[in-house]
Amino acid sequence: MTIESEKLVKTDWDIVKAQLPTDWRAIAQGMKLVGEQPEQLGAKVDDIEPVLRLVLYQAGASDSLRATVARAASIGLLALSHVALHKWAKKLGPYLRALLVRMVDSASYAPEKWHGFDIIAGDATTVQRPGSKGTTARVHYALRLADLTPRHIEVTDEHGGETARRFRAEPGELWLLDRCYANPPGVGAIHDRGAHIAVRYNRGTLPVYNARGLRINVVQLLQQTTRRGEPRERDVVVLVGEQKISGRLCWLRLPAAKALEAQARAERERDAEGPCDADTLVAAEYVVVFTTAPKQLRAACILELYRARWQIELEFKRSKTLRELDRLPNFLPETIYSWICAKLLLQVVASKIASPSGVFPPGGARLRLLPAVPAAKTQPRARRARAVVRRKAGVERRVRRTATHSAA
After folding, report:
1. Alpha-carbon torsion 62, 64, 68, 71, what sign?
2. How far is CA 398 from the centre of its chain?
3. Which residues contact 164 (CB under 8 A, 6 or more apart)?
4. What separation, in Å, do the N-terminal and C-terminal C-alpha atoms of the chain show?
5. Number of Cα atoms under 13 Å in the Cβ half of residue 271
6. pLDDT for 235
């Protein structure tokens, strides 16, 4: 490798290291990932830096394990097999999470701000097996918004349904979920674990009742709201078998322009099935959320939290498009956990670099954790002389033909 490329690699990695917590080496030692080993053991890794660099590179570049270790060996960084790197990637999940926790600004979603609740955003995304062009699996994930660390990761095939029963909620948590999770069994699954839920209301799958057991016509309830932008709420009950779960409907009528956009989107989504009915167009004017959270969190707070969940969803859509978050290396949960943590860590690092206070290389050079391997210069292959083997009978026939043409 040339001196110029050595400087480039050092500069790029130094910029990334500058964004990490100051005690990132001490954290690895505290977790006993690395440390002094007896010389006779011949340990290849006694420092977390080269391993961390390779794991971040592999996740950021979506490169294969073999290609990653080959690049590392070509620059003399670390001689490691692809199997060993895979084992390190599985083992570094908690370490990457610890780095992520220290780097994320948790003030917006700290439990203290939301009456002690730990805010969890859950969703699912389709992924592709390496080399596949279609959906081959679905990752059901949940993020703790206070530090953007994975709270739950489960991988199923493409037929695995999206249901809140997959999530192992815990007391003291408030789960923010999309409308596909709005059904009585899902609400009951979160409630039975001692947690609370705030889910986008789906009038087709989540019937709600009043205290006397009569079903509430939600569309008629919404039509009584005349002011736009004013949060409203009403106590309701969800029936899960014989169990009654108390909760609230919180809703907000959208501004006129946003309401028209929502109605147009609803009509586009229904084009294949026919025109929208009147109730669908009315419901499209409102954002409606069902929640079991206590009334200390007023309707305005619940709706604000749900908007935050939508921002997380948009961020994941960008991550799938720009950062290949859905191109998983394999289907092992431990590896996927490390992979997602590494992706999120790189995302936070990139945000810090792009901030006005971040140190960025002059000219906006692209950051690289490992250098590109230069293409080998190949010389054109010399044409080798080929031996000419002719059968005796064939030679005699050609001689006779030549003699006949000459005589003519």
Report:
1. negative
2. 74
3. 122, 175, 177, 181, 185, 186, 187, 189, 190, 197, 199
4. 71
5. 4
6. 96
Indicate whether 398 pLDDT > 70: no
Integer Cα distance of 226 and 229 in angstroms: 10
What residues does 240 pair with on adjacent strands? 243
- Mean pLDDT on 34-50: 68
Question: What mean pLDDT, rounded, does the chain reach?
Answer: 78
Q: Residue 386 falls within a domain, yes or no?
A: no
**Radius of gyration of the chain, Cα coordinates, nearest whole angstrom:** 31
What percent of the chain stands above pLDDT 70?
Answer: 71
Beta strands in 60-147 (DSSP E): 118-127, 137-144
* Neighbour-count burial of 266, counting CB atoms closer than 10 A to its CB (0-12 exposed, 13-18 middle, 19+ buried): middle
pLDDT in tens, 209-243: 999 999 999 999 999 988 898 999 999 999 999 99
Which residue range forms the structural domain that includes residue 215?
Answer: 192-297
Question: Which amino acid appears at position 259 of this protein?
Answer: A
In a domain, 246, yes or no: yes
At position 180, the amino acid (one-letter code) is C
Q: Give domain status of residue 55, yes or no.
A: no
Please give the DSSP secondary-structure letter assigned to residue 364: G
Q: Work out the burial of residue 8: count CB atoms within 10 Å of its CB; fewer than 13 is exposed, 13-18 middle, 19 or more buried.
A: middle
How far apart are the C-alpha atoms of 71 and 255, rounded to whole Å? 54
Residue 184 lies in a domain: no
Six token digits for residue 204: 């087709």
- Contact in structure between 176 and 305 (CB atoms under 8 Å): yes
Strand segments (E) across 118-228: 118-127, 137-144, 149-157, 173-177, 196-200
- CA 285 centroid distance within chain: 30
Q: Where are the alpha helices (DSSP H) in 20-74?
A: 24-30, 48-61, 65-74
Q: What confidence category does residue 312 fall into, taking pLDDT thresholds of 50, 70 and 90?
A: low
* Domain total of the chain: 1
CB 287 within 8 A of CB 258: no
pLDDT of residue 358: 43
- Establish how many alpha carbons lie within 13 A of residue 380's alpha carbon, considering only the half-sphere containing its beta carbon: 2
Q: Which of 78, 80, 103, 88 is nearest to 33 (CA)?
A: 88
